[in-house]
């Protein structure tokens, strides 16, 4: 049994700690960013979600917007 698996599929908010290194996707725009474990999620540099000036007003600071990419092993 490994409890960490249950934490990996929910979206994360700006300011949350990165639980596991990997590629995360900005839900509003699809931008991908590679985060390392122990870093903090930030605003999206593509659509600026996570900031008051973002293009997606529903995704301001505190909203969950980063989701772990779960790609099948390929290539
Ligand atoms: Zn974005």
* Total beta-strand segments: 4
| Percentage of β-strand residues | 15-25%
Helical/strand content category: mainly beta
Shape: globular
Individual helix count: 0
* Backbone CA Rg: 12 Å
Range of helix content:
under 10%
State the end-to-end distance: 30 Å
Domain module count: 1
Structure characteristics:
75 residues; mainly beta; four-stranded antiparallel sheet; 4 strands; globular; binds zinc ion
Describe the protein in words.
- With about 80 residues, the protein is mainly β.
- It has one domain (about 15-70).
- The protein is about 0% helix and about 20% strand.
- The chain contains no helices and four strands.
- It has strands at about 10-15, 20-25, 30-35, 65-70.
- It has a four-stranded antiparallel β-sheet, with no helix packed on it.
- The radius of gyration is 12 Å and the shape is globular.
- The termini are far apart.
- The relative contact order is 0.29.
- The structure holds zinc ion.
- Zinc ion binds near residues 26, 28, 29 and 47.
- Zinc ion binds near residues 26, 28, 31, 44 and 49.
């Amino acid at each position: 049994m490994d409890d960490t698996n249950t934490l990996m599929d929910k979206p994360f908010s700006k300011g949350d700690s990165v639980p596991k290194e990997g590629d995360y996707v900005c839900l509003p725009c699809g931008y991908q960013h590679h985060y390392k474990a122990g870093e903090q999620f930030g605003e999206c540099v593509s659509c600026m979600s996570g900031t008051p000036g973002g293009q997606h007003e529903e995704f301001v600071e505190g909203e969950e917007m980063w989701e772990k990419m779960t790609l099948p092993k390929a290539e």
